[in-house]
Amino acid sequence: xxxxxxxxxxxxxxxxxxxxxxxxxxxxxxxxxxxxxxxxxxxxxxxxxxxxxxxxxxxxxxxxxxxxxxxxxxxxxxxxxxxxxxxxxxxxxxxxxxxxxxxxxxxxxxxxxxxxxxxxxxxxxxxxxxxxxxxxxxxxxxxxxxxxxxxxxxxxxxxxxxxxxxxxxxxxxxxxxxxxxxxxxxxxxxxxxxxxxxxxxxxxxxxxxxxxxxxxxxxxxxxxxxxxxxxxxxxxxxxxxxxxxxxxxxxxxxxxxxxxxxxxxxxxxxxxxxxxxxxxxxxxxxxxxxxxxxxxxxxxxxxxxxxxxxxxxxxxxxxxxxxxxxxxxxxxxxxxxxxxxxxxxxxxxxxxxxxxxxxxxxxxxxxxxxxxxxxxxxxxxxxxxxxxxxxxxxxxxxxxxxxxxxxxxxxxxxxxxxxxxxxxxxxxxxxxxxxxxxxxxxxxxxxxxxxxxxxxxxxxxxxxxxxxxxxxxxxxxxxxxxxxx
Length: 485
Description:
5-stranded mixed β-sheet
């Protein structure tokens, strides 16, 4: 910092202290005083960040980058968004012989994100969109007085970072798993997945925020190419908002007393077959078992056949490659729903129906042969009824329960003895906390990548991996640009 700038800062602090001393104690406005102090601090921060940026600059006539020599050095103006506000300075740019793109050493050396934002700011913006809308984040950051940015930046920067993540998603996720740990007290790991409806832009939805009929592709697509696979919304013939089923998955750890310890979250926008969530769940489970092969493995879901097909595929591969013997369990709430429907059909009297349903649920939970007993009782009740709606309801419940029993998914008594969870409350809650709370706002609709950006960062926050994820991505922006010999 130059002497003149330092003198200016010192005078500003002296003026603040003088005005403070002249103000009566009863007239102090704490809100305004804090804003003034923060303004002084941010002013100092901007001055120091200019020094940081200049220190990372290069003045050699040529530099080496990507194995080639870049020359044609020029000095150009640059503006960067820091935690303390925007700063402008002169910086060196280099270009290869013949023209083309330029390289700016200070940006590569400091890991400036998307040619403008410091890593700290980019991290704040990404966390913000995981927690709230861009409009809410804009107001919150402005009130906090740090990293004050526009709503467009709150869309653009996280989208670009998420696109960079998608390019190396498997590699980055593997790095995160290698640095993660299984809770010491864990004895059980439960794997679940569930569908969740997401509001999307329909195939014929009018472009929002673009002023031309043929707008350019978003910046993240210009730099990283198209992100992700096709969306069901691409072919739904919808004019505006279209609902499609995304997917959430959880890997949760439980102690010997059946107490929940930790959950890892996976979430993806709608895609055919939900294969990405299943693949990531399998990778998470394998990583956990490599550290703790003694863990009891449990798979739990509702009655959706497609979800069970995915989970059973994971279980079969694990049993072949890691000698893990998984347990399967239908979410007890879904089981109880079918039992309740059958009881109501068997007993028109509401009180008797409640007693019968409770008895069947108790048998199912407490007896090793509970499913056999309940199915026998349900068939007896069915046979007492003539053909009609009530008999059909019981028949439907029998078919569902019998099908689940055939696949070995009703061993609730054993699970309770082993203090294993018998429900899918964790993944049901994940659908709400990862998707519903954040994304189902009045009028909200998302592009495939826009929605995935939110899901990616929100799942990372809830999994306790956000800082590790951002550190890994931020390192990919840092590159060496030495002066050429």
